[in-house]
Amino acid sequence: MAAAGAAGLAAALTACGAGDDSSDSGNTGNTGGSGNTGGSRSTGSAGAGSGSAAGTALAKTSDIPEGGGKVFEAKGVVVTQPAAGTYKAFSSKCTHRGCTVGSVADGVIVCPCHNSHFSAEDGSVKKGPATQPLAAAKITVSGDEIKLA
């Protein structure tokens, strides 16, 4: 009976991702906001995602609903539109246990593993168990195309 309980616990922990503790994941951008929304249409800051995907087209602006967003699991980013015409990007890796966030709606990015909630505006934690914000990612918007920067 104890072995069955341990197997269930191991399966539950595996669902959280392969990461040990998210604090050692190399996210050095976890202490600041994701400002860079000046004159250019580039948003976010360097940090999340793989550098080899720079310049990769992610979506059309029309694919990202206002107040919502879209998770690009293969690219490791989630793109949001917290206000009309404002696009933000963050790592899609939850800072709690490394799961990929699952959805964005009503200004909230939700991780399905333990129900952590993050702001679609700045990646900050709105509801735990996560305690660290999502790392900002850099994107550019040119016309109707959103690309990793």
Automatic annotation (TrEMBL):
<protein>
    <recommendedName>
        <fullName>Cytochrome bc1 complex Rieske iron-sulfur subunit</fullName>
    </recommendedName>
</protein>
<dbReference type="InterPro" id="IPR017941">
    <property type="entry name" value="Rieske_2Fe-2S"/>
</dbReference>
<dbReference type="GO" id="GO:0016705">
    <property type="term" value="F:oxidoreductase activity, acting on paired donors, with incorporation or reduction of molecular oxygen"/>
</dbReference>
<dbReference type="GO" id="GO:0046872">
    <property type="term" value="F:metal ion binding"/>
</dbReference>
<dbReference type="GO" id="GO:0051537">
    <property type="term" value="F:2 iron, 2 sulfur cluster binding"/>
</dbReference>
<dbReference type="Pfam" id="PF00355">
    <property type="entry name" value="Rieske"/>
</dbReference>
<dbReference type="GO" id="GO:0004497">
    <property type="term" value="F:monooxygenase activity"/>
</dbReference>
<feature type="domain" description="Rieske">
    <location>
        <begin position="56"/>
        <end position="148"/>
    </location>
</feature>
<dbReference type="InterPro" id="IPR005805">
    <property type="entry name" value="Rieske_Fe-S_prot_C"/>
</dbReference>
<keyword id="KW-0411">Iron-sulfur</keyword>
<feature type="compositionally biased region" description="Low complexity">
    <location>
        <begin position="17"/>
        <end position="28"/>
    </location>
</feature>
<feature type="compositionally biased region" description="Gly residues">
    <location>
        <begin position="29"/>
        <end position="38"/>
    </location>
</feature>
<feature type="signal peptide">
    <location>
        <begin position="1"/>
        <end position="17"/>
    </location>
</feature>
<comment type="function">
    <text>Iron-sulfur subunit of the cytochrome bc1 complex, an essential component of the respiratory electron transport chain required for ATP synthesis. The bc1 complex catalyzes the oxidation of menaquinol and the reduction of cytochrome c in the respiratory chain. The bc1 complex operates through a Q-cycle mechanism that couples electron transfer to generation of the proton gradient that drives ATP synthesis.</text>
</comment>
<feature type="region of interest" description="Disordered">
    <location>
        <begin position="17"/>
        <end position="67"/>
    </location>
</feature>
<dbReference type="InterPro" id="IPR014349">
    <property type="entry name" value="Rieske_Fe-S_prot"/>
</dbReference>
<keyword id="KW-0732">Signal</keyword>
<dbReference type="GO" id="GO:0016020">
    <property type="term" value="C:membrane"/>
</dbReference>
<keyword id="KW-1015">Disulfide bond</keyword>
<keyword id="KW-0479">Metal-binding</keyword>
<dbReference type="InterPro" id="IPR036922">
    <property type="entry name" value="Rieske_2Fe-2S_sf"/>
</dbReference>
<keyword id="KW-0001">2Fe-2S</keyword>
<keyword id="KW-0408">Iron</keyword>
